[in-house]
Specification:
Distance between the termini: 102 Å
Oligomer: single chain
Strand content: 5-15%
Number of helices: 10
Shape: elongated
Order of helices and strands: HHHHHEEHHHEEHH
Amino acid sequence: MSGKKEKKHFIVGIIMVAIIVAATATMIYCYINRFDPQEYVQAFLDVSYKQKTESYIKQTGISEKEAKQVFEDNLAYTMEKFPEHVMTDEMTEEYRELFADLAKKTSYTVGEATREENGTYQVVLTVKPITLLKDTYAEFQEKAQEYATKVSNDVMNGQAMPEETQMQTEIYQIYYEVLSQAAEKGLRYGKPNKIVLHVEKDKEGKYGIRKADLQNLDHLLIESVGEEQEEENS
């Protein structure tokens, strides 16, 4: 009988050890795979603007190709703002390279994260905007006016009036030259702004940054020309 009891205790001991090992493994897995909103935001911004894929791949488990596509999609969204009918293939590529370079030089610092009752995380981000567009706006207006005056003088001297598309293409070429030359001299940054990014789960249970927050962030990273400034220079 004593032998049976010892055998029973031995089996129970093995089972208990197995349970403890399994529980420990689960805890380790949960710790390793815990969601860190700060790390996620840092990884997402780095892959979106800096084309740094390593951390985002670890965070999401997607492939290198998929991670690189995040940057390409973000850049494509920027290029959608330019009218295709006035952009030559060469000009489109020039602008694309320019904005890809600007994206990689954007300045942001990921701060603390707090968890709301509904499970959404709020992550504070400090952004220093690139001021290239505002810094060069007056120069662009001046050169555009010079081109308009030249066209007007040419027409008065008997030359044919250029087509509207041709003139718009020329204006965009002037704008690119102004931007690229200023960028080569060195970018300047404005005063830091703070923005809150909401990290929340979608219907599939995957975390992501709220779309409206990302749109707001895009406007803050590269400062645009305000309506008041446009009116002053018009």
